[in-house]
Amino acid sequence: MEIKELIQKMTLHQKIGQLTQYNARVFLNDDSVITGPDKKLKLTDEDLATVGSVLNSFSADDMKKIQNQHLAGDPLKIPIIFMLDVIHGYRTIYPIPLGMACSFEAEITEQCARMAAAEAAASGVQVTFAPMVDYVKDARWGRVMESGGEEPLLTGYMAAAQIRGFHGDDLTGDSSIATCVKHFAAYGAAEAGRDYNMAECSERELRQFYLPAFKAAIDAGAEMVMPAFEALNGVPATINPFLHNVLRREWGFDKVVISDYNAIGELLKHGVAADEKDAALQAFSSECDMEMCSASYFHCLEELVREGAVSEEQIDRAVERVLRLKEKLGLFEDPYHGADGKKAEALYLCEKHRELAKRAATKAAVLLKNDGVLPFEENIGSVALIGPFADEHAIKGFWSCAGRDEETVTVRQGVEALLGKNKVRFARGCGYTWNDEDRSGFDEAVRIAKSADAVILCLGEPQNYSGEGNCRTDIGLPGVQEELARLVAEANPNTAAIIFNGRPLALTGLDRHISAILDMWFPGTEGGNAAAELLFGRAVPSGKLAMSFPRSSGQCPVYYNHTGTARPHWTTEAESRGYASDYIDCGNLPLYSFGHGLSYTEFEYIEMTLSADTLAEGGELTVNIRIKNAGKFAADEVVQLYMRDPVASVVRPVQQLVAFKKTGLAPGEEKTVSFTLTPESFVFYDTAGRLTHEKGKIILMTGCPDHYYYKEEIELL
Known about the structure:
The chain has about 725 residues and is α/β, with parallel strands linked by helices. The chain contains 22 helices and 26 strands. The strands form six sheets. Strands 9-6-5-4-3-2-1-10 form an eight-stranded parallel β-sheet. Strands 11-16-15-14-12-13 form a six-stranded mixed β-sheet, sandwiched between helices. A five-stranded mixed β-sheet has the order 18-26-25-20-21, with no helix packed on it. Strand 12 (about 385), helix 18 and strand 13 form a beta-alpha-beta unit. The radius of gyration is 26 Å and the shape is globular. The N and C termini lie far apart (about 55 Å). Mean pLDDT is about 95; it is low at about 30-40.
């Protein structure tokens, strides 16, 4: 297909149609609301006949119906491209992205994305709105569940793995889908952790923390970029000149940019566009190629071309980007991209996919605390399963695409399958919503706890308490769950709590009462089976936190890579000393820091050695960290390497991750994990916005922010 020749054959109206995306319901006569305002689009049949993209088609049959209808009426036979938010699985669901980031493992992440792509492509999806790479540090924001957490290095690493998995070896392949990285940029900086809220960030902060993961995703081959909803430094991201310049000019991104849902229409509500025509002009002038689910391009671009405010050459460039993507996906040869309903049904929840989802859930789980309780013995006499999430199917997580709660394995089902039903007793105890104060189930819960050999206490927040639009001011356990936990632990100290959550929670009270806490996040379809294997030692926790857990909601935002202060007073308890950077009613360090995560085995960090104590321009430094598995379980360990720059021209973070590797060790085995660093490992943005590294001392540390085993110094020359 010669794209430029095709564009020359198109009318201006047909070109504008390629730059629009509407919900499948518009074509299927479905009036349901998906997200955001359901405005009357005022589209004509002629408009719909030229539409270039469709959102939220969930089946191969629907996709083919829409595509066939379109191709029959299009003399140029330009296929529609179908897009959907395939975030952490299609029908077989794996853990939420924040949980997957806790695996610190590219291989399992890539495999899961590959699985999701196969199911989605067979169902008629050709592009996913993933990965989401927003840098996040405020756990009140609901969309942290979609992110890679509070470390740009880790987020970019996981994003690249997702892109490799979704894309496969060839985008034309019938089990591959293209990716759209989002939300560009600083969406995670929303003031007060409230979705869609404004964000204020200096350019230095943007470049240091918020932009690197986007660059990593683009370098990995992301085919599209979606601007964020929020106003950044007073200008909505969709039309923000700084972001536009970075993306198109500095990075040279010449692929498709698509607005978020009705984001161009919402320029009026932001108060930066006088009317729909003004919104269309500003968005298109900012090289936003495609408009999602609003109609300003259809309504206004032709008039703007006639007036000379927009040139048809500009239109042609945007259309070419869209058609190039369709060409990459092979849609001109196969407009269905291999969509096959029977193939999809065979893939959904197949044994191979379920096994992968279970393995991912075990790798994403983080053992937050364990005072000798876990793992339980499989030959245990009796187990009490207590709590509102003990027999709950709704643990797959928000943005779970075509996944179904009823197909998700509960903890009760997982434990009963492992131990047998005769060993398990169940009591719900209480509810899990923020305003549920019903304590009528406490007595039964305490009674079965007393009579059991061990208690599994299943707590958390509902899955719709996180995700888009789902922000919280109090991120403790909702309702009376903490009170239930205290009573159950008093009745039976051999109690382990497992948590289901889409964000870090403030678990200080639970930590005070419970001897073992395992965070499962929202683990997806196989969550209950994964939990059972972890609780009884068939799998060993290896996850490390990708985002810090606060002691109190009032600490938010709390994150490991904060900058220093002239009056530091780092505390874990309320120990205010006056005129210092602390709180009078709470410690200011997190309850569990980024990088924290325990195991059933014991890892000994034997030594850290450096190949030199200086590092010059153009040189390399090798860091060797020797570790030993001194315990009884074969297990994986994430070896983490951090740096601190104690004297610089700007205030630097008190600690910053520079490298990590995950490695497996058998009991008694020793390994040396090596990292190669260059001066570029220590770069930062100075006050002039230049990426630089400065001469002077650097401190290298191994372990994690709440416990370092070794510290060594080098000199940058």
